Amino acid sequence: MKLLEHQAKELFREYGIPTPCGYLVDNPNDVDDHIGDSVIKAQVLIGGRGKAGGIRFANDAESAREEVRNVLGMDIRGFKVRRVLIEERLHIARELYMGIAIDRSRGLPLLLASKEGGVEIESVKDELIGRWHLVPDDKTDGIVNEITSFLALNGMKEQVARLVESLWRLFWDKDCELVEINPLVVRKEGDMVASDAKIIINDDALFRHPELPIEEEDLTPLERRARDKGIAFVQLDGGIGVIANGAGLTMSTLDTLSLYGGKGGVFLDLGGTDDVAQVVEAFRLMVDASPKVILVNIFGGITKCDTVAKGIVQAKESLHISYPMVARIKGVNETEARRILEENGIFALQDLDRACRKASELEAS
Amino acid sequence: MSVLLDESNRVVVQGITGHQGQFHTEAMLKFGTNVVAGVTPGKAGQKVHGVEVFGSMTDAVRDTGADTSILFVPARFVKSAAKEAMDSGIQLMVIVSEHVPVHDSIEIIQIAKSQGVRIVGPNCPGLGSPGKAKLGIMPNQIFKEGTVGLVSRSGTLTYEVVNALTEAGIGQSTCIGIGGDPIVGTSFIDVLDLFQNDPGTSAVVLIGEIGGTAEEEAAEFIMKNLTKPVCAYIAGLTAPPGKRMGHAGAIISRGRGTAKSKVRALEEAGVKVANVPQEIPKLVKEILNDA
After folding, report:
1. What residues have CB less than 8 Å from B289, skipping those under 6 apart?
2. Once rounded to an integer, what is the mean pLDDT over residues B64-75?
3. B183-202, pLDDT tens digit by residue?
């Protein structure tokens, strides 16, 4: 889960990471009359706001209200601006970068510090980026000297030490996949401030953080309903609604469909469910997405084929499914599954290739 | 031959009295796995399919000499269950559970590395060595004894390909699902290395998917270290960019981690890559003939 900038900065303050003074508004009338040089920042869950016109500058209350009016309601790559953060303008001496992400290859958190900030970290030259792996329960004392001299922040060692320690504690305490300060501003006044803040929390750990705000993501209403039911569901352009179990199998079903000219219309991953009601719920979502054809591809392991078959039969009866349906059922309890389906007039193929060809023909007809 | 697992492993099922634990204990016993104990706190003294249940891993290991475990416990309890297993001397552990917090995985895997414990998973279907033993949730009937090693990041897609191999008359030495999470205990490279050194494995099938760079790293390793022939399939060739397709790992971003970039890296390493999983048996026959 991504946090909005103002939420991330609230966490920064909680962990003692300096941020600019600022406040959130959803209405131009809420801008303070005594405001001076300020920055108006759209609060959306997508990068590249600046280029899209979502970051503006003002020097008094009147111009600030004007810019707030301009930014509110803007559409930034599909994200509507509902709130705006107003912050004091910083007197910038240098722009740096600091972040902690997870290095998949090493299986460890990786602290990145860059001599250049304010741009996309991917575009920074490799030699300008320092990298330090961190181990759980580790103290950061050992790397502070290195980071200080790498970023040429001599004389600011204590500030660097506090910053690195705070960032690491925040990353670990809050189950973050990413904590990023970009740019990390060194002010002319001689101190460091987190000008922007980006935090991504690991979704699987949200259960132990009831204190964190849950923000609505940019999903279609159906995708949102699916998410609330714990079903992975993506709307695509084609006419074939694919219900499969496992992301890999679902994707390979789409790959196989394309071999026969078929196109996936919805991608629905049942996951490892073993619950008839969950299967019926998946079909309910599928039917509401109005596909031309429904293709079911189940290879049961933790998912039992007979559970899925019972779900298909129940769904067909209770939802009055009129779309042509092709089913391919393999794996644990497949014989029982085929018996259940056949007794209810649903024919299940064993072969994925044939099922995909059949579904593609039905889509084209 | 097989890697990691054979009939000599003495297996404990952690969470054996749960719905999944019971079901898959029976399936593993039928496959020939030497399941010697189960563990569920507070349920000591019960039996599940004839297997004795203990209240703790310490008791189970002390009384049965177990060296291997498989976890069927809810994600939020995985960390403590895994630590308990390692503390009692378990050497090989399969974590089936999905949605384990990534920080918990990092901690578990760090401890495992420092103690020399092998972990497969989390969020994985486990591994099967046909004719010897199975440690996981893969359907029993898809396997056939033979010499092809298979490693995959995707659970059900593993079944699809193993089944296709078996139907084409191609048997397997060991099939390993390493799991779809960003952080896993055993990587493609670890398994490729095991297969390279296993005299019972003559060719390797690698199944990857979009997201991350594990397949590109595997390609580099294959180029440098593998003398055995390899073929592969990468799921998601037709997946639209920018859409999250289910797995934490299956996300395409910034032009990296795409199916195309993975296919290119593998082909440059001399690996034959299939367009759809059903093509794999044909490719395996080709690479075995060429070898």
Report:
1. none
2. 97
3. 999 999 999 999 999 999 99
Nearest residue, CB atoms, A248 vs list B107, B157, B254? B157
Question: How far apart are alpha carbons B136 and B95 in whole angstroms?
Answer: 9
Which backbone phi and psi does B183 adopt, to 5 degrees?
Answer: -115, 120
Long-range CB pairs of A64-69, under 8 A, 24+ apart, other chains included: A64/A31, A64/A35, A64/A38, A64/A40, A65/A28, A65/A29, A65/A31, A66/A28, A67/A40, A68/A25, A68/A27, A68/A28, A68/A31, A68/A40, A69/A28
Q: Tell me, what's the pLDDT at A125?
A: 87
Question: Residues 222-281, chain B: which have Cβ within 8 Å of A?
Answer: 233, 235-240, 243-248, 250, 254, 275-278
ipTM over 0.90: no
Mutate to test the interface with A, among B97, B123, B156, B276 (most CBs of A within 10 A): B156
User: Which helix (H) or strand (E) element contains residue B264?
Assistant: helix B259-268
Q: Coil, helix or strand for A140?
A: coil
A198-214 in b/e form (b: 16+ CB < 10 A) is: bbbbbebbeeeeeebee
Low-confidence ranges of chain A (pLDDT < 70): 215-218
Q: Chain B window 163-222: which residues touch A at a Cβ cutoff of 8 Å?
A: 163, 180, 182-184, 187, 207, 209-210, 212-214, 217
Name the residue among B99, B217, B238 with its Cβ closest to that of A204: B99
Catalytic machinery residues of B: 247
Q: How far apart are alpha carbons A31 and A26 in whole angstroms? A: 10
Shortest CA gap A66–chain B (Å)? 34
Give the DSSP H or E segment for A343: helix A334-343
Tokens of B24: 């898959």
3-state secondary structure of A303: coil
Token pair belonging to A3: 């946090």
Give the model's confidence band at B8: pLDDT under 50 very low, under 70 low, under 90 confident, else very high. Answer: very high
Q: Residue B230 is inside which H or E element, if any?
A: strand B230-235
Question: Counting beta carbons within 10 angstroms of the beta carbon of residue B109, is it exposed (0 to 12), middle (13 to 18) or buried (19 or more)?
Answer: buried
Of A251, A330, A353, the CB nearest to B278: A353
The answer to whether the CB of A202 falls within 8 A of the CB of B182 is no
- CB burial of residue B255 (10 Å; 0-12, 13-18, 19+): exposed
Chain B residues with CB under 8 Å of A331 CB are 139, 142, 159
Identify whether the C-beta of residue A24 lies closer than 8 Å to the C-beta of residue A43. Answer: yes
Query: Distance (Å, rounded) from C-alpha B180 to C-alpha A248?
Result: 9
The answer to whether the CB of B264 falls within 8 A of the CB of B232 is no
Give me the amino acid identity at A249. L
* Per-residue DSSP letter, A27: S
Show the tokens assigned to B108: 């578990």
> Helix (H) and strand (E) counts for chain A?
10, 18
Site of tokens 């209405």: A27
* Residues of A with catalytic roles: 97, 180
| pTM score, whole prediction | 0.90
